[in-house]
Design a protein that fits this description.
about 35% helix, alpha/beta, globular, about 375 residues, binds acetyl coenzyme *A, disordered C terminus, 13 strands, Peroxisomal Thiolase, Chain A, domain 1
Length: about 375
């Protein structure tokens, strides 16, 4: 039996602090008009002092788990895609596993810049398809506001913070990642680089003074690269899924620049009404941008169960990634015999099991799934 990783839950976390283009006009030599016409961005959300990437990841994951009706302890694997973890070590994926109160399952962090979520989702799909895992949490989270130079107008206007997550679960119904295209061309690595903090340029007073600890970008080169690879990757993924452009219900691209999105959609012959855009509100949230957009697409009714979606992203590396994803119904299992329900409820009431499983991280918004509502047959 072939196994597919259906997306059965999605969630997001957006920090509440907003920086508008008008705010930036006060601190750097820029204008709302320049930013909107060149990028499509009107405002971005950034974290407060008490927020960090793991907390955003946990909050988004909890929402996704709740929507899926899956308890953290039922997860088999966690993958967190980010380039801005809390620490170089320990890996943020273990922080998320612990913070959610998941079992001591496998958890790893995947670093491919803005393409991270699509890479992670395609990877998760392999664990499901092989039969190794039944239920996988995939998070895309980014906190770039602490890594941009807020005096560098060429980068700081572009980025925002946030996290998005999905729960995927094994099913024999064709769904989940139907095809994917992953690419990388390290020759262009210098065009989008955070030179300091790693082994090449470890923290030092000199490296700090030289500004190596903030993101450097050659916007024009990244722009050219993106317009070259995105449309092509999207078309390849559609073909590999054995589909036509008309079969795509909604195109959810990485939200980096409205002009790049429009060019990719045009290349693949996707009409504007099939393109989801929320860059005006959040800017580029890197690995979080596609899962956040996916959540909003569902919330706004632009994406529906049964739809075939196209994800495409580009980013640091330089890398690119596209995936065609079908969202199938989250099939409920046959109802349990009544005596079994009584027994489960009695156990939960008398033994207060949450005492043992919940290691919520301080400050993380609490929305622990209360009970397992729907389970997918697998
Ligand atoms: N406000 C006003 N003027 C600006 C600003 C700003 N914020 N930023 C740059 N300019 C100026 C430049 O200095 C330049 O001035 P000059 O002509 O006097 O030299 C002029 O505007 C035009 O600059 P360009 O770089 O040609 O502008 P462009 O139209 O290419 O837009 C942009 C720049 C928005 C950065 C674009 O190149 C872009 O979006 N590139 C892709 C960037 C991207 O997506 N990066 C994220 C990658 S994903 C990841 O993994 C993190």
């Amino acid at each position: 039996m072939k196994l597919y990783g259906n997306i059965i839950g999605w969630g997001k976390y957006i920090p509440s602090r907003v920086i508008t283009n008008a705010d930036l006009e006060k601190t750097i030599d820029t204008s709302d008009e320049w930013i909107v016409t060149r990028t499509g961005i009107r405002e971005r959300h950034v974290v407060g002092d008490d927020e960090n990437t793991s907390q955003m990841s946990i909050a988004a994951a909890r929402e996704a788990l709740e929507r899926a009706g899956v308890r953290p302890k039922d997860l088999d694997l966690i993958i967190v895609a980010t380039s801005s973890p809390d620490y170089l070590t320990p890996p943020i994926s273990s922080q998320v596993q612990h913070g959610l109160g998941a079992k001591t399952i496998g958890a790893f962090t995947l670093v491919t810049g803005c393409t991270g979520f699509v890479y992670a989702l395609s990877t998760a799909q392999q664990f499901i398809a092989s039969g190794a895992c039944k239920t996988v949490l995939v998070v895309g989270a980014e906190l770039l506001s602490r890594f941009v130079d807020w005096n560098d107008r060429e980068t700081c206007v572009l980025f925002g913070d946030g996290a998005g997550a999905v729960v995927i679960q094994a099913t024999d119904v064709p769904s989940g990642v139907l095809s994917f295209v992953l690419g990388s061309d390290g020759a262009g690595g210098e065009h989008l680089i955070l030179p300091g903090g790693g082994a090449a340029n470890p923290p030092s007073h000199k490296n700090l003074d030289d500004g190596l600890h903030s993101l450097k970008m050659n916007g024009r080169e990244v722009f050219k690269f993106a317009t070259r690879v995105l449309g092509k990757a999207l078309r390849q993924a559609i073909q590999q899924a054995g589909l036509q452009t008309e079969d795509i219900d909604l195109f959810i691209p990485h939200q980096a620049n409205i002009r790049i999105i429009e060019s990719a959609a045009q290349f693949a012959n996707l009409p504007p009404e099939k393109v989801f855009v929320n860059i005006q509100k959040y800017g580029n949230t890197s690995a979080a941008s596609i899962p956040i957009a996916l959540c909003e697409a569902f919330e706004e009714g632009r994406a529906k169960i049964g739809d075939t979606l196209a994800f495409v992203a580009f980013g640091a590396g330089l890398t690119w990634a596209a995936a065609i994803v079908k969202v199938a119904e989250n099939v409920k299992p046959a109802p349990k015999p009544r005596w079994q329900n009584f027994f489960t409820e009695w156990l939960a009431r008398d033994h207060n099991l949450s005492r043992f499983g919940n290691y919520a991280t301080p400050n993380a918004p609490s929305s622990e799934p209360k009970e397992e509502k729907t389970r997918q047959s697998g």
